[in-house]
Amino acid sequence: KANEFQLTYQSEKELFLIKGYGQQMSGGYSISVEACVLADDGIHVLFQLHGPAADETIVKEPSWPCVVLKLPYREGEIFFD
């Protein structure tokens, strides 16, 4: 969890796309799904890490932002763009 990572997991009916951004030096981070597109060559997904807002009270302890996107199962390659 200290480093950035991405992985997929599939069951018979579901597909999970997981993206972690490693250790950040404070709390207040969020992750958005900028795009999730089914294309001819597979599924393309784009996540974006957002830092704490300038006016936000920030917890000065490390955090490990991570997001899980759950989709219906579909065969094909996954691209973390």
Note down, in words, how this protein is organized:
The chain has about 80 residues and is an all-beta fold. Helices cover about 0% and strands about 55% of the residues. The protein contains no helices and 6 strands. The strands form 2 sheets. The chain has a 3-stranded antiparallel beta sheet with strand order 1-2-5, with no helix packed on it. The chain is elongated and about 45 Å long. The relative contact order is 0.36. The mean pLDDT is about 95.
Q: What can be said about this structure in brief?
A:
The chain is mostly beta strands.
Characteristic key phrases:
81 residues, mainly beta, three-stranded antiparallel sheet, 56% strand
Tell how many strands the DSSP assignment holds: 6
Distance N terminus to C terminus? 20 Å
Q: What is the helix fraction of residues, given as a range? A: under 10%
SSE order? EEEEEE
| Rg from alpha-carbon coordinates | 15 Å
Strands of the widest sheet, in order across it, are 1-2-5
Number of helices: 0
Low-confidence stretches: none
User: Approximately how much beta-strand content do the residues carry?
Assistant: over 45%
Give the helix/strand class.
mainly beta
Mean pLDDT: 95
> For this entry, what is the oligomeric state of its chains?
single chain
Overall 3D geometry? elongated
For the biggest sheet, the summary is: 3 strands, antiparallel
